[in-house]
Amino acid sequence: MLPQPLFVKSFKLATKIIVIGAGFAGLSAATCLADKGYQVTLLEKNEVAGGRARKFEADGFLFDMGPSWYWMPDVFEQYFELFGKKVSDYYSLVRLDPSYTVFFGKEEVMEIPAKMDELLAMFETYEPGSGKQLKDFLAEAQYKYEVGMREFVYKPSLSLLEFADLRIVSSLFRLQMFSSIAASIRKRFKHPKLIQLLEFPVLFLGATPENTPAMYSLMNYADMALGTWYPMGGMHQIIEGMVALAKEKGVDIRLGQEVKQIYVPNGHASKVVTQDASYDADIVIGGADYHHLEQQILEPQHRRYSASYWEKRTMAPSSLLFYLGINKKTNRT
Ligand SMILES: Cc1cc2nc3c(=O)[nH]c(=O)nc-3n(C[C@H](O)[C@H](O)[C@H](O)COP(=O)(O)OP(=O)(O)OC[C@H]3O[C@@H](n4cnc5c(N)ncnc54)[C@H](O)[C@@H]3O)c2cc1C
Description:
15% strand, 2 domains, 13 strands, 3-stranded antiparallel beta sheet, alpha/beta, FAD/NAD(P)-binding domain
């Protein structure tokens, strides 16, 4: 069954909706709403769409600024299918083989084969018996992926009642919500390199393996069974595809429009102000970081959390990225 795109109650079709931010979240929200017949304007502060997945061009070089791992191709297929389209209508995707290369050091390189029998054989070279362990581990992970996506990820999460279903509650143990992925991997594998390889996808959650439920071995299933893919031309092809679809559905995308304030008279957001324009709205949807929208764009009386609440949060680690353009061929290693 396809995921339900959005749960919009009974607003009139003349309803004007402003969506803030043209990243994956804002683009998909805007497109789903426009598809339902609403008047949607998408305001993006940058001069290009894409947010963290936008492209950067300088001196003849073209960079993808953020993502380089295309996992879970089913999620993108399902997204385009919501509108009767296919991924291949917008960009062409190839499965990479090897999926990726891990550099443990200058001399130690591990290439991860896309084909399952080759992957199992590679595990065996590190630790006898680990091929069979990997097979069992991935079978469990497949269950977690299927149940986790269906019962958790595609739920709108508007109320805890969505999860009050005996099937979901009874699946919690099999999903291994209460033990860590670090422990679950160490039960099956002893070789430190295999452990590192299997723990690495957790970094996408910004968490440590010790603090992440074993349910997230669903990421290993995404990695090793569903594969690593590449949209030909670069990751920004996904954004270009999503922008093209948004426009087909009638979304009015305004770039270079940084929202400075959302006006909320009488408890209802009714106007959005950018550096040089103002937009009336019946509904405002935030597709930018929650912290930014709440702490900087909303007036204090409309914020759900205080500044001190945010100060006490543990943030996921950040990184400093350099975009290097090299005008010579290089040796990969
Ligand atoms: C370096 C890096 C590598 C990554 N690698 C991967 C990967 O390999 N695979 C993967 O799946 N994910 C990866 N990610 C994560 C992925 O890129 C993000 O999860 C995703 O792009 C977030 O999309 P979003 O729409 O939620 O937010 P964003 O992309 O942040 O979109 C928010 C948008 O809102 C705009 N905005 C903010 N404030 C305002 C305002 N006041 N007014 C108007 N517009 C505003 C921003 O400019 C932005 O365009 C990576 C991220 C980074 C940074």
